[in-house]
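The following block was generated as part of the benchmark described in Methods. Ligand: guanosine-5'-monophosphate.
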Amino acid sequence: ILLTREFQFALSRDQLSLVYQPIYDLKTGEMSKIEALVRWSHPEFGAISPGVFIPIAETSGQIMAVGRWVLEQACFQARHWRENHGWAGKITVNVSPVQFAQPTFVDEVKQTLLLSGLPAHRLELELTEGAVIHSPTLVQTALRGLQRLGVEIAIDDFGTGYSSLAYLRDLPIGCIKIDRSFIEDLASPRRAPQYAVALITAIVGIARTLDLQVVAEGVETQEQVDAVRGLGCDFAQGYFFARPLDAARLEALLDSGQPDL
Ligand code: G
Ligand code: G
Ligand code: MN
Ligand code: NA
């Protein structure tokens, strides 16, 4: 309740910021995408996780203003990185199902692209499976609107929600991000890694059939890099490569060249 009250002022008092986590192409080693993640730093309580404050923002309706701010920051940043650091990859932004269900959402995305000068193909929006399945018609209309704009859609935390293979086939989705729990199991002595291998193989098989890109999330070790590459994932993201970084650190990484995959 205290946090709910405090969050009202987070945006206007400049307490929100974005951090950025690189996503690498497993074949070329290129930093193909960068995921933007919001952070809240409270003057007294310190860093508060988005896992805590995003649900607060969703309940209070502030998610609309926060989401707009995040999208705008991310788009301007990506445009800046093209001009000043020669990086022409995709910026990926998490979108709450509450934002997505607004009839004005597609138009807001369009305006933000115009305002920032970012080409639509350099923006990807991440949605969770739950968001897609909740309000099918609104979501379908929004997805088709975004497709017309040229904005890509990725399904976040894939494999943990109420998976329906039909929506992957029927909706304009370009990418799936395999939830990090599957990647974790690849190296886990507790859970049998052969199940993780089988499941990731199956997910990649579906993605190939439907012509979707696959990102492995939560990659923390060289063994996991080798495993997900061997299993046919296209991209990987995780602490092995980089933690979410502030803009200055991300720029240093852009200027320092590519990691050794
Ligand atoms: O960054 P971190 O691992 O703490 O993220 C925790 C959760 O918060 C993740 O599920 C992530 O997708 C979500 N999240 C991070 N940034 C944003 C954002 O800008 N908008 C929304 N809706 N969710 C976000
Ligand atoms: O739900 P979503 O996939 O958007 O969550 C992103 C969150 O995952 C971010 O908060 C980020 O801090 C976290 N994350 C990114 N890479 C790793 C990783 O390698 N290991 C773990 N445990 N978390 C990660
Ligand atoms: Mn995400
Ligand atoms: Na993710």
